């Protein structure tokens, strides 16, 4: 049943994306930008509903009281496609940094540009970082926005050694806004590079914001320490669930390091 339900969910997930993108097109492009946000947020919530009903995976996202008013940076762990779609419905006006090539995709690219996302050219990292900071400052000056950055850059398996990039430190220092870390272990249930979708409950939490103005080393230490401590606790809780998902080797190794029986 795991394979059947996973296959069914993946099929319905992409059908849902295509159908909604087509059906909502007139409303989305004729509406003011702040109203048009209803469409992607509705799509995200519908995906979470389908995930529950078809794959048997519920979502328990807490800590909304830690989201500041106005502009801030949201810094989630990046383990799965789940964390790319689960959090932005909680934000007033999310802002993503993405590859410019994505804006060339029909419909999808048009949807992206409607929301004034920040496309960057692949190439020099220093030039790209400067462009990101300048574009984000411009957006936040126009109206409050919430920049979503994955501090580790690419998806990593649950329990894997943390590999935080220095880019978020520079962006934090330049923007002067709070950073809200987000802890979760969604990769146990919606693994990267696999079509399997394990049943259970994905727990995620918006952690207390890190205030602006800290030194770069202090900020990085807090970001890593607070995020990883919360993720470790969630990993332990998932291992003690009545019907835990299949744990990858990285997660089993981390549990042993924490002194927990897998």
From TrEMBL:
Organism whose genome encodes this protein: Mesorhizobium huakuii
PANTHER family named in the record: 1-ACYL-SN-GLYCEROL-3-PHOSPHATE ACYLTRANSFERASE
Protein name, entry field: 1-acyl-sn-glycerol-3-phosphate acyltransferase
Transmembrane segments: 12-30
GO terms, molecular function: acyltransferase activity
InterPro entries: Plipid/glycerol_acylTrfase
Keyword Ribonucleoprotein: no
Pathway per the UniProt entry: Lipid metabolism
Keywords: Acyltransferase, Membrane, Transferase, Transmembrane, Transmembrane helix
The organism's place on the tree of life at top rank: Bacteria
Residues covered by the Phospholipid/glycerol acyltransferase domain: 72-187
Pfam family for this entry, one: Acyltransferase
């Amino acid at each position: 049943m795991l394979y059947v339900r996973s296959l069914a969910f993946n099929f319905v997930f992409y059908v849902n994306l295509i159908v909604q993108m087509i059906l909502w097109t007139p409303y989305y492009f004729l509406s003011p930008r702040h109203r048009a946000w209803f469409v992607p947020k509705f799509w995200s919530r519908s995906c979470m509903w389908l995930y529950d009903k078809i794959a048997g995976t519920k979502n328990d996202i807490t800590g909304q009281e830690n989201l500041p008013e106005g502009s801030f940076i949201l810094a989630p762990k990046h383990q799965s496609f789940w964390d790319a779609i689960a959090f932005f419905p909680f934000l007033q006006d999310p802002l993503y940094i993405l590859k410019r090539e994505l804006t060339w995709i029909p419909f999808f690219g048009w949807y992206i540009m409607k929301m004034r996302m920040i496309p960057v050219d692949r190439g020099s990292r220093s030039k790209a970082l400067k462009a990101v900071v300048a574009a984000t400052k411009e957006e936040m000056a126009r109206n409050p926005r919430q920049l979503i950055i994955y501090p580790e850059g690419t998806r990593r398996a649950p329990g894997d050694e943390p590999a935080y990039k220095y880019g978020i430190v520079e962006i934090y220092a330049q923007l002067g806004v709070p950073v809200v870390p987000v802890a979760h272990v969604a990769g146990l249930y919606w693994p990267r590079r696999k079509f399997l979708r394990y049943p259970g409950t994905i727990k995620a939490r918006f952690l207390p914001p890190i205030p602006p103005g800290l030194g770069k080393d202090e900020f990085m230490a807090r970001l890593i320490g607070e995020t990883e401590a919360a993720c470790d606790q969630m990993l332990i809780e998932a291992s003690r669930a009545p019907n835990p998902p299949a744990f990858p080797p990285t997660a089993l190794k981390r549990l042993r390091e924490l002194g927990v029986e897998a």
